[in-house]
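# step 3/5: fold
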Amino acid sequence: MGSGTFSQIYIQVIFAVKGRNSSIKTEWEKELYKYISGIVQNKGQKMLAINGVADHLHFLIGMKPSCCLSDLVREIKKSTNAFIKEKGFSPYRFEWQEGFAAFSYSQSSLNNVIGYINNQKEHHKKKAFKDEYIDFLRKYEVDFEDRFLFEWIDN
C-alpha cells in the first residue's frame, strides 16, 4: 500500500471445528488463541478480540485493505491444525470445518463486539452455536441455504 491510503476496516470472523470428537479444550484454548493472534500480527493485521467455546471460535481484527481475508483464514486454519497436532493437544485428528463467516463493523460498535466475543462462554450457556450463527446471518441479511451451512453438531 502506498502512502495516502487510510482505512479502518473491522471484521469479525467465525468458524467451526469439524467433527464431534475434536473440540477446543479449555486446557489449551489460551495457547491456541495466542498462536492465532501471532499469525494475524505476522500478516500485518491487528487482533482486537478472540474467544470461543469447544465447537467454534470468534475473532475481531482491524484489517488493512491489502489483506485478503480468505487467505488469512486459510492460513490460520492450516497452521493451527498443524500446531494442535504438533503439541498433541487433541487425541483425535483436529480439523476445522470448511468455510467461515465474516461481518464488518463500524468503529462505534467495537466495544460491543469485543464484549460479545469476550463473553462467549456465558453466551453459549443459553444459546447453541447453530442458533447464534443463523441469527448473525439473518441480522446481516446474508442469503444462505441450509445445505451450505456448517455440518451442525447437535449439542
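# step 4/5: annotate
The radius of gyration is 16 Å.
# step 5/5: archive (pending)
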